[in-house]
Automatic annotation (TrEMBL):
<dbReference type="InterPro" id="IPR017946">
    <property type="entry name" value="PLC-like_Pdiesterase_TIM-brl"/>
</dbReference>
<feature type="domain" description="GP-PDE">
    <location>
        <begin position="8"/>
        <end position="247"/>
    </location>
</feature>
<dbReference type="InterPro" id="IPR030395">
    <property type="entry name" value="GP_PDE_dom"/>
</dbReference>
<dbReference type="GO" id="GO:0008081">
    <property type="term" value="F:phosphoric diester hydrolase activity"/>
</dbReference>
<protein>
    <submittedName>
        <fullName>Glycerophosphoryl diester phosphodiesterase</fullName>
    </submittedName>
</protein>
<dbReference type="Pfam" id="PF03009">
    <property type="entry name" value="GDPD"/>
</dbReference>
<dbReference type="GO" id="GO:0006629">
    <property type="term" value="P:lipid metabolic process"/>
</dbReference>
Length: 248
């Protein structure tokens, strides 16, 4: 099967990279102001099962909280500050729900790559609940969100819960030789790969096999062009003010 990439080629990583606090609504607004029509963000569950945007399992790096985010209810997470760690301009920024990000992206014609980022041990539940929420929230969207994950357990659970949502397998390091079997097993449209482990031959092999490939995180404009020239379908960047869709 030949999988088609219907999304834009340039994707804002975590909303706006490092320009604004990652995975917040404020970041999405900065990405949108810079002309991005697709954003990637990380989603996991609060203790009471609410899908929220957060990269790390722990709260320390990107908030004034402590410990595992999954130990707190959404109401408890909502009392924390997810912006002051970045800069005073963003002090008081709350943790966003997937619901609020769906509302913002849909209202602004922005496509989504929802990275399912389960708290360790919560892979199946996160895959299932994020997929169910995404189906409901994006029911009227012009394009469905692309679900991706490093966790094959999460992707499998997402597939079983909502087989119609497109999925991509994320791979952190060197791409294993059995990548076609993995994509086939998980019914994924393609691979989302670490830039440090891709070359032209690999990109071409993935495309020739009929799968899509997107590469993260690319913060050099020449490298973005090279990857797209090689046939990459998508490139994720942090540099939303300089590597903009209108500069490609
Ligand atoms: O989804 C691409 C990229 O975000 C994966 O790595 O650690 O930035 O979530 P990470
Ligand atoms: Mg991510």
């Amino acid at each position: 099967m030949n999988h088609h990439w219907p999304y834009p080629a340039l994707i804002a990583h975590r909303g706006a990279g490092k320009v604004a606090p990652e995975n917040t609504l404020a970041a999405m607004r900065i990405g949108a102001q810079n002309g991005f029509h697709m954003m990637e963000y990380d989603v996991k569950l609060s203790r009471d099962g609410v899908p929220v945007l957060l990269h790390d399992d722990e709260l320390e790096r990107t908030s004034n909280g402590q410990g595992l985010a999954s130990a707190l209810t959404f109401a408890e997470l909502s009392t924390l500050d997810f912006g002051a760690w970045h800069s005073t301009a963003y002090a008081g920024e709350p943790i966003p729900t997937l619901n609020s990000i769906a509302a913002f992206t849909l209202a602004n014609q922005i496509h989504s790559n929802i990275e399912i980022k389960p708290t360790t041990g919560d892979e199946a539940q996160t895959g299932r609940l994020v997929a169910l929420a995404a189906r409901a929230l994006w029911a009227q969207a012009s394009l469905p969100p692309l679900l991706s994950s490093f966790s094959e357990v999460a992707l499998q659970a997402a597939h079983e819960a909502v087989p119609t949502l497109p999925r991509a397998l994320l791979i952190e390091e060197a791409v294993p030789a059995d990548w076609p079997e993995r994509l086939e097993r998980l019914a994924c449209m393609g691979l989302n790969l670490n830039d440090r482990f891709v070359d032209q031959a690999l990109i071409q092999a993935i495309r020739q096999a009929g799968y899509t490939v997107a590469v993260w995180t690319v913060n050099d404009a020449e490298r973005v062009r090279e990857l797209l020239d090689w046939g990459c379908n998508g490139v994720f960047t942090d540099k939303v003010t300089t590597i903009r869709p209108d500069t490609l």
